[in-house]
Batch of 4 targets.
Target 1
Amino acid sequence: MNDPQNNSPEKRDSVQPGAAHSCDVAIVGGGMAGASLALLLAHHCPALRVALLEQHPLRGPGAAIELPSFDTRATAIAAGSLQIFAELGLWPALREYAAPIRQVQVSDRGHTLGVSLDARREKAASFDGMLGAVIENAALGPVLHRALAATATRVIAPAEVAGVTMQADGTLLRWRGEGEERGEQTLHARLLVVADGVDSPLCRSLGIETREVHYQQRALVTTVGLQRDHAGVAFERFTDSGPMALLPLPKRDGMHRAALVWTCAEDAADQIAGLAEADFIHRLQRIFGWRAGRILRAGSVSGYPLKLSLAREQVRRGVVLVGNCAHFLHPVAGQGFNLTLRDCDGLARALATRAEQLARGQISPGELDLLQTYWRERQQDQLLTIGFSDRIPPLFAARNLFAQGARQAGMLGLTLAPPLRAGFVRQAAGLAL
Ligand SMILES: Cc1cc2nc3c(=O)[nH]c(=O)nc-3n(C[C@H](O)[C@H](O)[C@H](O)COP(=O)(O)OP(=O)(O)OC[C@H]3O[C@@H](n4cnc5c(N)ncnc54)[C@H](O)[C@@H]3O)c2cc1C
């Protein structure tokens, strides 16, 4: 186990070479899912010996962390997730990088009717006067990993898990490190948490299949500079090619900024991403309109192919899946990480309810009964959130009269019927259950 006082990455990574080690919980993947779960376990189940293995090196505190999770994207973190981070004591550190979402404006291109959700009106679904907050992933990563370094979690990085063998009392992981830890190492875990992202080789090696729906769309992501202040408004705009989101970001170098997620048809994505900055802005402004004022700048564009990918099994004896390897969603409603954080919170709390038995060694953290209880409690939220993220894009992409009528009626319903709107907002905020 780590010395919690010694947070230097070199010391944290040190494991006796060649020796077989054991822990109660091994988390494979130090991205948003794995790092968040490790923090929640340290908070709710401090007696558990937790190891986190990440194949990429983690830099020292303060420096950028080059993991897939912590790239150039920004994440809309819902009020419910902010509450979870606040319970972990992370809100003061996150607030420094957060742009509050005070209002969400949803609109349909070519129609005047739209829905506006306001934190002042939706008090029950807000946190500290905001519906949520947007944080750049490159800022979120170091906050999570700095906090993790201050816990007793054993962070092993770089450590690529090359294979796992199920045993009667848990799982034997084989991993490869660098430097002194070059060559194959082993670690025995009573509970294996797979958090290695979408298209998980680990799930495949465990024989866990996924159900996939390819949307034939790509999300183009970039940061734009705005002429005027966004005033904490997040815009969601449905267009012929797919939904577009413009999320508030903190001002930088005197420039008002927003994070753009532009969903477009797969066959148009390369052409749009390859446009020169002025042409990109021109096209964007034409489709998005002038709700956020004039767009002055656009940064480099990254693309993410979109699909729905759901693991057919999320728990089995000694194994649990969290994050993208369990469910990878369309980013339209900004739900993927928020759902994952609620799953991780649920898992840590489920283990905490059995803390005494775990401490006395009467049960294992990989006990099937315990994991199934966790899964049953998470099922309803997952079904609602996954359905919400999966059904909106086709409804808003369809230009036929029925679909247009349905979404206009939906927007009208949300505008006119406060209980309906409240339900919608609470689900989106991760506070529905
Ligand atoms: C365009 C876009 C926008 C999004 N916006 C939002 C949003 O606004 N709000 C929201 O809630 N969600 C959003 N999401 C979803 C969010 O990004 C995901 O929920 C999040 O990335 C989940 O991360 P993860 O940790 O499961 O996977 P990953 O980020 O893929 O992390 C997996 C980690 O496992 C490591 N790993 C893999 N294999 C091994 C191995 N064998 N050994 C050791 N380590 C290994 C990898 O190096 C990596 O660090 C968005 C997604 C996209 C695509």
Target 2
Amino acid sequence: MADDRKLSEEKRANLISELTEEILDTAASIAEPEEDNENLANMIQDIRERLSFEVNVLLNEAVTKLSPRKALERIAEVPKRTFQRFGINFRAQHTLMFVSVIILIITGMPLKFPQLGISKFIIVDLMGGLENSTLVHRVGAVGLIIVGVWHLGYIAFSRVGRRDFFLMIPRPRDIRDFFRTLLFFFGRRASGPKFGRFSFIEKFDYWAVYWGMVIMIGSGIIMWFKEWFPKYLYDIGREAHSDEGLLATLAIVIWHFYNVHLNPDVFPMSWVWWHGKLNEDEMKHHHPLEYAEIVEAESREIIEEKDRVADTGSGDA
Ligand code: HEM
């Protein structure tokens, strides 16, 4: 059985490499690239990697889609496939967080920039005075503290939470992906990097919020209960709160909003925060490595099932 598996893995690897080389050869015979181009070797390597990846994905898809189970599903007209990216627990955390953060920004920024007309409008006309607006700021703060504690519990006690937390940890590959993205944007590479479950962009977003929450909640509590703390700590807390508050607001408005709203790939908004789902095309486009892993696991399952049935059949005989 193990030998069969090895053989089938070998067959797959050979097929991928053969198809890749065939496409490259055909392209070279049509394009007739100039020999003295020093970037040629890099470009060919780039294209080879990309082709091997795509051929691998296509192969897995072919195995999955041609299997009898899939054929039956097609007959039963199962709706187009979707992938559950985020569960209800994570989506609820995200919702509470963004509602709290919007409240905190709207009631916090006017305190930092009291001279602006919009600050007066928010505090006086909208909130009915400073007392009310600071009370609303504290309501938002309680929301954010609940999310912080909830998320720590989610990481500690939920299997999916733990898995995602470990996948969020930055790795050397993220630095490489960052530079590859820059090279792609400057037209120096044929394609951008391929991402797994979390790209370096999403990791940056996550850790900026994680770090920001520690600072904002820590310094906010010092200001809220200032009678418990020495004066110098209050001064440090206020400075940190004020500056990190602005930094967090800008990070959300520039980085996060671009990635989940303004980016042409998702404009006007990615709805994954609401239903938690991605369709097959979105999975292939945004998380091709995770997609490849899922499809490969499924095709492996199908092959194993086939082997099991064959084994049982030969045992019966
Ligand atoms: C994204 C989260 C937050 C943002 C953007 C934010 C923003 C701000 C800003 C800009 C100020 C004015 C600082 C200044 O005077 O220069 C402020 C004040 C304050 N914040 Fe926050 N804040 C956030 C979270 C929190 C949290 C979690 C707490 C409590 C745990 C908190 C408690 C306070 C308190 C006590 C003040 C002093 C004014 C008041 O009494 O309302 N803030 N906040």
Target 3
Amino acid sequence: MIGAAGVTPILYSFRRCPYAIRARMALAAAEVRCELREILLRDKPSAMLEASAKGTVPVVVLPDRVLDQSLDVMNWALGERDPLLWTEEPQEEAAALLRDNDGPFKHHLDRYKYSARDETLDAHHERDQAAVYIARLETRLVEHAYLTGDRARRADVALFPFVRQFAGVDKDYWQHAPFPNTRRWLERWCASPLFERCMHKSPPWRPDDEPVFFPPPG
Ligand SMILES: N[C@@H](CCC(=O)N[C@@H](CS)C(=O)NCC(=O)O)C(=O)O
């Protein structure tokens, strides 16, 4: 088993980051044991920057390579073990959803979030632009309980942390937005035991600390 014999992968993570959440969800589903190093984005450990100079989380350091894209971490973890069969999904549909999530949706989501402290940004405009993507998810979720069918797959896991972030910007708007199925879908994910495990709190890592492991016991 990965992580069992002195080759425990190291996971640099930030609890609230949606990219890191999707990676942790896959690592937890696969029960891939990592040494968790929680970071502060404003004070990144030099060991992390030595592994991956671009300075984003998540980063997984393996004995022979470094994974510093969240989707690569998901794919690697689920390649080790995929007990929930998340990777059995319509590949092109899933890829299109992911591309538009990580591209235009995330772009407008960030601007929506930051509009509170940047008056050059128009919160309603950015929210409505981001909501174009949510409306696409809603159309799918009217048909099925999950984005690509009747059970959860990788696309659901990779996307819900971003929808969660969107929902959190203005909770009142979200509760009344015309996306009841997306709301239910998000609530199901946020209430799941796997998500709870992934959101376990850890203090920021310091080099002298005793190792902390992820996933925590479930
Ligand atoms: N394409 C990367 C994006 C990861 C990313 O942007 N993570 C954010 C946190 S949510 C980050 O680390 N930002 C660096 C910073 O804010 O300094 C991935 O999929 O892993």
Target 4
Amino acid sequence: MNVLLLGFGSVGRAFCNLLKEQEFSLKELLPAGVEVKVVGIGTKTRGCLFSRDGLPLKQILDFESKTGKLTGMDSLYAYPYDSESLVSEGDYDLLVECTTSSMSSRGGVARLIKIALDRGKTVVTCNSAVVYNHYFELKELSEQKGASFIFDSAVIAGVPLFSFMKHCLPCAKVVSCYGVINGTSNYVLEMMEEGSTLDEAIMEAVRKGCAEKDPLLDIEGTDSAVKASIIAQVLMGASFHALEEISIEGIRNVTPEMFRKAKKEGARVKLVAKIQKVLGSVQISVRPEVVPSDNPVSRLRGASKGVIMTTDIAGEVYLASDGFGPRQVGYGLLRDVLEYISGKIKT
Ligand SMILES: NC(=O)c1ccc[n+]([C@@H]2O[C@H](COP(=O)([O-])OP(=O)(O)OC[C@H]3O[C@@H](n4cnc5c(N)ncnc54)[C@H](OP(=O)(O)O)[C@@H]3O)[C@@H](O)[C@H]2O)c1
């Protein structure tokens, strides 16, 4: 399985490190004669590499960590054009996309994904902005072209939510989803509960590597709203919700008084995303709530995320993960690639 990796930032590097680290497990796991081979790497400004026989990942990781770029590597692997021509002309089976997630640049990376799908290439992505803005068109295109569009690590990287619902709870329809889908806000609220100010807690979350590049997206509830909207579109048949149509309140106005009151009741303050079917339409909200102690969401610690999925047949299912950061997302991408290879994910 020849992989073209688009993006070689913290997640792209973590994906490559995992491929190296798990080399022996992968040999045991994959059918005889099948291997996951990275044949191309594309970046925006730091060069591209390509080799039909597979790129030497360790050498590339070492070179990049010393020089901060890919250009200047062994000329055997140099690809003299940009990422777009790599995607549109390169010889590969599967595009693993882990470029910068940007709500403001609608179209940019999504266009490259469309080029890959149009060529019948399967795409695995962790880019929530792309899935949020383009889910329906990318899904339709992948179906037309007999490819797959896979994005389980774009919402809760540690939990393959969509694959779980599809394969483990077939036929069950999601009626509502309730939980924490942004780890940074959970981490920040926990630090505030322990006495830190909002700014101190944000700085610590950034230092710990669990915040988005722009932590305001976490704190103001935008990241949760984007992810809630993806869940609504994919699992609940909702149409696209522009952010202005979603009731969003971040954690900026959570007061020490709110924490004291919650503590007295044995409850905890969480940034809760709620997605519900109400009279045939799907409503989404994100806001801080006092969650009682008998609700598992109240027990989420640190940068954990967790959701209660209420279904029509299978009742309530609780899915949670305490993983965060590039390694977790890189693992999510690898997991999706392996699921695809094993044939579990089809168009
Ligand atoms: N880091 C995390 O903990 C985390 C957690 C959850 C989700 N994610 C998601 O994972 C994705 C990657 O995150 P990251 O932390 O690895 O980002 P990053 O360190 O900023 O790296 C982004 C990479 O994408 C490349 N890129 C950007 N635009 C491109 C384009 N148009 N064509 C080709 N390459 C392009 C960049 O190129 P240059 O090298 O030239 O700049 C860079 O290599 C994002 O969608 C993010 O939201 C990350």
